[in-house]
Every structure is written in C-alpha cells, then in structure tokens.
Amino acid sequence: MDCYNTSDLISIEQALEKLLSQTSAISDVEDVALTDAAGRITALPVISPLNVPPFANSAMDGYAVRLQDITPDAVLPVAGKAFAGSPFSGEWPAGSVIRIMTGAPVPAGTDAVIMQEQAELSEQGVRFTAMPAQGQNIRLAGEDIRQGAEVLAAGVRLGTAELPLLASLGIAQIKVVRKLKVALFSTGDELQPVGTPLQEGQIYDTNRFAVRLMLEQMHCEIIDLGIIRDDPQALREAFKAGDLHADLLISSGGVSVGEADFTKQILDEVGKISFWKLAMKPGKPFAFGQLNRALFCGLPGNPVSAVVTFYQLVQPLIAHLSGDTHWQPPARLKAKAMTPLKKSPGRLDFQRGIVSANAQGELEVRTTGHQGSHVFSSFTLGNAFIVLERERGSVKAGELVDVELFNPLLRF
Ligand code: AMP
Ligand code: MG
C-alpha cells in the first residue's frame, strides 16, 4: 500500500476533463505554403478546386476502342497514339483503334480500353482476344474527388496522408491555425545544462530537453526560459515572462511539498490553481492553473514523471489548444502480462513495458524492470505503457492488462 491517503487525489479522467473544459483552442489563422505546412492544423475545411482525375484517362497501356467495332475476328488498324501528357488530337476513323498509355486522356468517343495483354498485333492491325465491357479501364473525370467537394475538415493535422492529396489538387497555399506558443523552464538549484561540467551534488537537466523534443513533435513555437533557481523571486520573473509571451507555460520540478518547492506557492500568488494532486503514478504532483493570460502546467521533477504527465495530460491539452480536433489518445489494447507487476492500490499506474505478439498473434507484455520515476532507461527499453487501474493491486503473470503503445511523441 502507498503509505499516505490517496482519497484526496483527483483521477486522471477528472484532470483531463478540467484541462479540456477550462480551456479553448487558439483561433488565429495564417497562410502558409504547402511546402511549409507539415504538422500544421487546418483552420478551415479544404474544398477541391478541381476534379481528380481532371479528365477521363486510361488505367492501362492498351488500345482505346469503340464497342461497335469489336468482334472476335475483327483486325482493326491503329489510327494514332495517345500518351500521358500528349493526347491524341487527330481524326479517329470508324473501324480503327487508338494506341493508348496509362494516364493518357481517352479520345472522344472511347467506350473502353483493352489492355495490351489482350491484343495481338500484326501488319494489318490489332485483333483482341477478349471482348471489352463499356467503360472498362477508363478512369472517369472526378471519380476520385469532385470539384467543390470537401477534402479535409478544419482541425486536421497535415501529414503524409493529407499534404500529397492537397498537392494533387494544385493547392499551393493553405490556411492553418498559428502555432501554439509554449514557454518552458526547469527549476532546481542542482540542475546544470548539458555541456557544462557537474559540481558536487549537481545533475543534468533532463526535463527541459525531453519537453522540448515533445513540443517540437507537436509543432509548437518554443520559448525556452532555461533553468530557474529555487528562489521565489526568480520563479516569479519566469512566470511573468511566460505569461507575457506564451499561450502555455510549462515548468518542471518544485511542485512537491519539500522546502525548496516554490512552484505551487508562486502559482497560488500569480495565478489560479485548478488542481495539483493526481491519482497517477508516476506523476502525483502535477499542477494546472491559469495565469493572467497564459495557462500553466507544472510537471513533477523526476524525469519519468515529467514525461509521463506531459504525455498523458499535456499532450491532449496541447492538441486541444492547437485546434487539432481530430487528435486521438493511443488505443488501449489488452495484453497478457508475462512477468508479475508490482502495484499498490490508490493510483492509476503507467508502468513501462515491452509489448510483442506471440505466434498466435496475441499480445504479450513484459516489464522493463525497475519502475522508479528516475529510471529514464525504462523508456528506451520499453515500447508501451502498461496502464493499471487505480484500485488494482499487484498483477500476477498470466493476468490480462491494458497496454498503450508509445506514439511518435516517445518513439518517432
Ligand atoms: P522536485 O520535484 O523539484 O523535488 O524534483 C524531484 C526530483 O527530480 C529530484 O531528484 C530532482 O533532482 C529531480 N529533477 C528535478 N528537475 C529535474 C530535471 N530538469 N532534470 C532531471 N532531474 C530533475
Ligand atoms: Mg526541485
């Protein structure tokens, strides 16, 4: 059992509900070139300016024919050629066919395209070994996308599925929601930036590095306020700077109840706390509140806790604030625990595990080992969270558990 009362901790579901219901998406819009739009979010629905394909064209290399000319014995002369990018433009005499390549516009009057594998070519012309059906091997204009149709909704993050589609429509500029501005700092007298030697009792600042990477993945504009000493005045200044320049301020450390933990105290002073104690592990002290302008999230100091709370709480918040209305949390799947998992009832656990499929295609999961909230290597060893319900105790090998495969925030 955890050796403290957990009944005053709010559940992660309640926390998420507050994060999303007490905040609203930014609405400023900017125009960007399609080539700069990767990861951005559509501000408006995108309407197709074209038919795709723009004209009826051949799906095969073969012959464009009129059905009335085709009989099993007919040998028909070839009256011309149609290539992709170089249409047939001459007269098409009755009783002849046109040689045509994939993607070439079908000449007016074409009923079907017969593929070349079903044609025998001789000096006199072509004979077909199969009879065509009306419309065969013709891709119709607008068959894929009709001019005027909505191809993307508003609130969609633009990636490899979306951007080439817009390119195929000739869309060169697109209206997107402006980037969310996120300021961040780490707190702690013990912290040093990477690249400087450590003195006695110092450690490197892992969290700012981790949070930066995750913010980059979410295409935020980052304002890095550095490492802030455990000093109320320095913290006050950092809060002020974040509030002035960002939509969201994220700190790490100093949200516990130790003697150098001033983050919550300053938040109390300069803003309004919504909640700061969660029934989750790792990550019990996680503060959320409102400053004058900006929102504030205070991540716990332990690096695993900082990453897990960012992933589980700040990620959906940022998606929401950025106007990404299609963001989905990673799917929870059932897997068989292949190793015992230690747990005390009272908090929802996000342990790190290694998920694989067995020969029958069933999911299995093994622990990454030590689950301490300072053991960052559990992320490099693992590929999934093992999500253990709040009231559940230890898990025996063979029990079913929920798992959540890491998304690109943790695994590119
Ligand atoms: P705190 O929440 O400030 O009490 O920090 C909890 C633990 O996390 C302490 O062991 C800190 O040294 C450690 N810690 C806090 N911030 C960081 C950071 N940015 N990088 C690595 N460890 C940290
Ligand atoms: Mg600290």
TrEMBL record:
GO CC annotations, alphabetized: cytosol
Recall the GO molecular function terms of this protein's record. metal ion binding; molybdopterin molybdotransferase activity
Q: Quote the SUPFAM superfamilies the UniProt record gives.
A: MoeA C-terminal domain-like, MoeA N-terminal region -like, Molybdenum cofactor biosynthesis proteins
Which Pfam family, giving just one, matches this sequence?
A: MoeA_C
**At the top level of its lineage, which domain of life is listed?**
Bacteria
Q: Which CDD domains match?
A: MoeA
Root EC class: transferase
Q: Does the keyword Magnesium apply?
A: yes
Q: Which reaction does it catalyse?
A: adenylyl-molybdopterin + molybdate = Mo-molybdopterin + AMP + H(+)
Q: Which UniProt keywords apply?
A: Magnesium, Metal-binding, Molybdenum, Molybdenum cofactor biosynthesis, Transferase
UniProt pathway: Cofactor biosynthesis; molybdopterin biosynthesis
UniProt-listed Enzyme Commission number(s)? 2.10.1.1
Q: Which cofactor does it need?
A: Mg(2+)
Name the Gene Ontology biological process terms.
Mo-molybdopterin cofactor biosynthetic process
The record's annotation in InterPro entries points to: MoaB/Mog-like_dom_sf, MoaB/Mog_dom, MoCF_biosynth_CS, MoeA-like, MoeA_C_domain_IV, MoeA_C_domain_IV_sf, MoeA_linker/N, MoeA_linker/N_sf
Q: Where is the MoaB/Mog domain?
A: 183-320
Q: What does this protein do?
A: Catalyzes the insertion of molybdate into adenylated molybdopterin with the concomitant release of AMP.
Q: Member of which family?
A: Belongs to the MoeA family.
Q: What's the protein called, per UniProt? A: Molybdopterin molybdenumtransferase
